[in-house]
């Protein structure tokens, strides 16, 4: 991807310009590209997405523009539903799709696809999966469930299991190492050591996956990861900390592959409204041999 970003503040002499004209004036984009960026959701005015090309911007207003000319067509992938009732929706997120809007678009992500697939729903999101990660994602469908899910994820009162494939064996272990953004890293990434920005505690349990758990999957060194915290890139960072980066994880030094071998596999939680025990599972079908 060739993502380009600009941030600027509107000047008094810009007051009579349409937003697409202003973007063309203050960035390297043509008016046509500016309108495309607006259409895709890549323009923010005072940190809110704006899609109206004719909008007039007051002097002193911050404008952020992100444009990726290599974005593929807006996907039409049908999102598989794992579980649904009156209060929650659990889906199996495909790999390669962001959970929610990125800098450059709010039309290529899971929430946008679900809105197209289920326009009757107003969904609330409480956890995310990395773009390359597939698997279980649970969303609330109404305010009561939203409150309950928020409490469950904030209180860590659930069991989240992932499957990952690594390049060498790993014995069962627990990693308790803080995770923070690495200062000055380009591209941006996280770590457990070095000059970390706002490091936060993180705990992950690892164990080798059993033959039964990996039956039918591509042969290799498979592990099960249970996360007790929800830090960005947590499993990826903790495995890198152990010298066992995930295959296909080029950001953290994993072996070359056409995919990130990480899947949100099982989720155990109490139903946010009924209190019933839920055990949800998304089979890792994309890793089958």
From TrEMBL:
Transmembrane segments: none
Pfam families the record matches: PseudoU_synth_2, S4
Xref: PROSITE patterns: S4 (PS50889)
InterPro entries: PsdUridine_synth_cat_dom_sf, PsdUridine_synth_RsuA/RluA, RluA_PseudoU_synthase, S4_RNA-bd, S4_RNA-bd_sf
CDD domains xrefs: PseudoU_synth_RluA_like, S4
Record keywords: Isomerase, RNA-binding
Lineage top rank: taxon: Bacteria
Domain RNA-binding S4 as annotated: residue spans: 17-80
Signal peptide start-end: none
Entry's family note: Belongs to the pseudouridine synthase RluA family.
Protein name: Pseudouridine synthase
């Amino acid at each position: 991807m060739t993502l380009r970003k600009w941030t600027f503040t509107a000047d008094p002499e810009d007051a009579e310009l349409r937003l697409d004209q202003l973007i063309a004036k203050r960035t390297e984009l043509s008016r046509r590209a500016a309108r495309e960026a607006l259409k895709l959701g890549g323009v923010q005015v005072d940190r809110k997405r704006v899609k109206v090309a004719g909008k007039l911007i007051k002097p002193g207003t911050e404008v952020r523009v992100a444009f990726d000319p290599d974005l593929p067509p807006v996907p039409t992938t049908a999102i598989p539903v794992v579980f649904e009732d009156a209060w929650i929706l659990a889906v199996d997120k495909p790999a390669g799709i962001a959970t929610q809007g990125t800098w450059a678009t709010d039309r290529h992500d899971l929430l946008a696809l679900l809105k197209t697939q289920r326009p009757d729903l107003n969904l609330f999101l409480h956890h995310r999966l990395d773009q390359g990660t597939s698997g279980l994602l649970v969303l609330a469908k109404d305010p009561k469930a939203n409150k309950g899910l928020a409490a469950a994820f904030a209180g860590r009162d659930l069991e989240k299991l992932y499957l990952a494939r690594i390049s060498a064996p790993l014995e069962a272990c627990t990693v308790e190492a803080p995770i923070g953004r690495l200062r000055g890293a380009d591209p941006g990434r996280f770590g457990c050591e070095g000059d970390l920005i706002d490091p936060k505690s993180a705990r992950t349990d690892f164990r080798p996956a059993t033959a039964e758990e990996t039956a039918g999957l591509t042969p290799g060194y498979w592990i099960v990861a249970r996360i007790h915290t929800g830090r960005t890139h947590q499993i990826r960072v903790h495995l890198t900390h152990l010298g066992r980066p995930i295959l296909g994880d080029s950001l953290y030094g994993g072996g070359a592959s056409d995919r990130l071998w990480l899947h949100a596999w099982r989720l155990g939680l109490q139903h946010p409204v009924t209190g019933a025990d839920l055990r949800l599972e998304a089979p890792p079908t994309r890793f089958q041999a």
